Amino acid sequence: MRTRPFAVRLAVLLLPSLIVLLSVGVTAWIAITVQERSVRSATAERVQEVASTFAELSQVREALRRVDAAEGAAAGLGGTAALDAARARATAELQPLATVVEGAAGVDFLVITDAAGVRVTHPTPGERGQRVSTDPGEVLAGEEFLGTETGTLGPTLRAKVPVRDGGRVIGTLSVGILESQIASDYDEALAQLLPWAAGALLFGTLSSSVLAAAIERRLRRLDEAAREHEQLRRTATALREQSHEFSTRLHVIRGLVAHGDTREALGYIDGVAPVLTGGGDAELPAQPLLRATVEALRAELGALGARLEAEIEVDDEVDEETLLVLANLCRNAGEAGATRVRCTLRQHGERLRGAVEDDGPGVDPRAAERIFTRGFSSKPDPAGTGRGVGLDLAGSLTHLTPPTICGGSRGAAALVKQKTSELGGARFSFEMGVAG
């Protein structure tokens, strides 16, 4: 079972956050762009509305009509005194009104010119009576203008409309707002928008991170489950193969024994699994299966470099489950590195009480609570067929007592009622009923 590469796991964690960052970033950029256009559009509508409304005032038309008449008279007589007086009078009448409108409408200037392009009103007194700095030709020709131009106050977004007397243009009216003021309004609107965008970004990032972490934990659990499943599959395959091989060998041995070929049967067994007999079990004549099990354990532990000491006092026949428990515990002691293993089994009425102890390294205190868990083993598994089955099986068949951890330089494990093993290593005890 292959686990997911680190890059894939990292992508699972980071991709949702990156998507949120991208989504919120694009949304914020669109909102900022829309806000900028909205501010500029609202400003353009305001200056155009002020200009159009002010140009329709009868007071403005009347003042410019007098200036226009004075311009005509001055052109015919060749004098300008009457024209200057008419412009001065128009300024006196219209400038106060223009100043009030500038403040009320929030515009930076409201400039009125006569038909010659000379300013009648202007926020700066020195500019009144002067010709405008931008070309008024199109507006005097009857066209309206809306756009950005640079005048005496700087770059401004302005609206220019003609002032008409019937069908004749007698002046112009220009209303504008400084570009710096528009930028200030935009910055103010942006300052109100950014906290919401930042909050959405933070909330989305945190939420996506939590969700990604939950997904990663779920995927990790699935990986672990898949690995466990694969381990169980390999173990089951190995057990099936071993069972088939063992069954075949049993049939061969049975055939030899059934035909009285005892010597050939023993030779076949020695060839399959050489037995290092230790003797000393003739005291169990009524327990052939138990005696054979002890002999087999002696041989197996001898191959591991350990010596088995058996103390067995039973009257009734020992069943296969008890033998299985004994075999697993003794085998675990030998595989753990013990050189001396003591196995005791005594009958007390209808109960069998057994124990297996050794002089090995004992049980690691950190693993004491997990040693009866299926799949857990302190020994390596180079073949990959699976370990951690023996103690789980033994515990399920008996009332096997988990060892409690006590002191000692070897980390010895002891029973609840016995603090240390006499041999210095681990000690497991169990109790089972006599076979009925």
Automatic annotation (TrEMBL):
Compartments where located: Cell membrane
EC number: 2.7.13.3
Keywords: ATP-binding, Cell membrane, Coiled coil, Kinase, Membrane, Nucleotide-binding, Phosphoprotein, Transferase, Transmembrane, Transmembrane helix, Two-component regulatory system
Cited SMART domains: HATPase_c
Gene3D superfamilies: Histidine kinase-like ATPase, C-terminal domain, PAS domain
PROSITE patterns hit by this protein: HIS_KIN (PS50109)
Enzyme class, UniProt record, top EC level: transferase
GO-annotated cellular components: plasma membrane
Domain Histidine kinase: 325-436
Membrane topology: Multi-pass membrane protein
Reaction catalysis annotation: ATP + protein L-histidine = ADP + protein N-phospho-L-histidine
GO molecular function: ATP binding; phosphorelay sensor kinase activity
Coiled-coil portions: 212-242
Principal location listed in the UniProt entry: membrane
Full protein name: histidine kinase
Organism of this sequence: Leucobacter massiliensis
